[in-house]
Write a structure and sequence with these properties.
Order of helices and strands: HHHHEEH
Oligomer: single chain
Distance between the termini: 13 Å
Strand content: under 5%
Protein name: DUF309 domain-containing protein
Pfam families: DUF309
Shape: globular
Largest sheet: 2 strands, antiparallel
Strand order of the largest sheet: 1-2
Length: 130
């Protein structure tokens, strides 16, 4: 883990948690491009989950399912908490959403479902203190 976490990362977390998924992607992508490992893959995992949620907002079920899986797979290699993020909680929430999406299928998603339907509970990044 790096000694200092860039301010842009916390901006990306705030964007994620307030539903600004495309902005979160842009913020974290800028960090990802410049980062070395292990942060590079960590940023990529979170930004892929963010893009998955952006796809879901746009009723792109396939894109949401693919990127939820890819982002989660990248984050699975990290400890329970990493860079101030409760990774296990983010993975758990993402897995629950992925399972729900797979069960209901692409034809059952409507714009009115997002954020209002408890069935489609969107992940949030939970922070941990050191």
């Amino acid at each position: 883990m790096s000694e200092t976490i860039p301010q842009e990362f916390w901006q990306g977390v705030e964007q994620f948690n307030t539903g600004q998924f495309y902005a979160c992607h842009d913020t974290l992508e800028a960090l990802w491009i410049e980062a070395g490992e292990p942060e590079k893959t960590f940023y990529q995992g979170i930004l892929q989950i963010s893009v998955a949620l952006y796809h879901l907002e746009n009723l792109n079920w396939r894109g949401a399912v693919i990127l939820l899986g890819e982002g989660s797979n990248r984050l699975q290699r990290y400890p329970s908490s990493y860079n101030g993020v409760d990774v296990d909680e983010l993975l758990s929430q993402s897995a629950a959403l992925l399972t729900t999406l797979q069960q209901i299928g692409p034809d059952k998603i409507t714009a009115g479902d997002l954020g209002k339907n408890q069935v489609l509970s969107l992940p949030r990044i939970v922070l941990v203190s050191y």
